[in-house]
Amino acid sequence: MRLVLLGPPGAGKGTQAELIKEHFNIPHISTGDMLRAARAAKTPLGQQAEKYMEAGELVPDDIVVGIVAERLAQPDCQNGFLLDGFPRTVEQALALERTNTRVDAVISIEVPRDILVERLSGRRICRQCGRAWHVQFNPPPSLQRCQCGGELYQRSDDQPETVRQRLDVYEAQTSPLKDWYRQRGLLVAVDGNQPIEAVFADILSALGVSR
Ligand code: ADP
Ligand code: AMP
């Protein structure tokens, strides 16, 4: 399976990715996670990306396209992959096409904007395993600790002002990809405003796969 997860910040892409990657045994490739790792390691790429991420803007296409192309060339992607947070612009989608990477389906997770704001402001991430929790909708075992024992933190771009900017950027720059992929017969839309397991069940049935 070669899949792309599309949807606004907070739609549940990372949450569903954990379930999808287990089900299909494919690597989960999140450009957001890769860029955060590059920032934490203070690589030149991470330092370049930092100001865009802090402002809730997109990192320039050439930077992101480069890291994805490198990742997709790894042997573990030969039998499939799950892209999360990429492509985010038509230019990125064209760049992916130019690498002759076949995509089987693009799953668009749809959630109303007011719910997205609630989800992002209550999101807590594990420093150790990267899992996303929500203080109210998907509460961790304790407010400070993940199930794996790792420490939980709040992403700096999950502050209300940056959240609004990221949602605007999604509408302006990423949502046109829905029509773009629909025209190519690849788009499947799923209602993301349901419990996590129900969203996952809808994704599997939209892909024509049984549990
Ligand atoms: P994305 O990767 O699309 O930005 P996440 O998977 O990190 O989104 O989810 C955003 C927040 O919403 C997290 O705090 C997560 O625990 C919570 N969440 C994810 N899916 C659901 C859902 N179906 N219902 C309620 N909360 C959810
Ligand atoms: P995410 O973890 O997907 O919410 O992404 C966090 C931030 O990383 C975004 O707000 C962007 O600044 C940057 N980013 C992640 N993926 C991309 C992408 N495909 N193109 C441009 N910027 C990206």
Q: What proportion strand?
A: 15-25%
Kindly report the oligomeric state of this protein. single chain
Helix content: 40-55%
Query: Which molecules are bound besides the chains?
Result: adenosine-5'-diphosphate, adenosine monophosphate
Q: Could you describe the largest sheet, including whether it forms a barrel? A: 5 strands, parallel
- Give the name of the CATH architecture: 3-Layer(aba) Sandwich
Specify the number of helices: 9
- From the alpha-carbon coordinates, what is the Rg to the nearest angstrom? 16 Å
Helix-and-strand structural type = alpha/beta
Strand order, main sheet: write it out: 2-3-1-4-8
Average pLDDT confidence is: 97
The CATH class: Alpha Beta
Number of domain units: 1
Shape: globular
User: How are helices and strands ordered from N to C?
Assistant: EHEHHHEHEHEEEHHEH
Amino- and carboxy-terminal Cα gap: 15 Å
Task: Give the CATH H-level superfamily.
Answer: P-loop containing nucleotide triphosphate hydrolases
Counted beta strands: 8
Question: What is the fold-level CATH name, i.e. the topology?
Answer: Rossmann fold
Low-confidence stretches: none
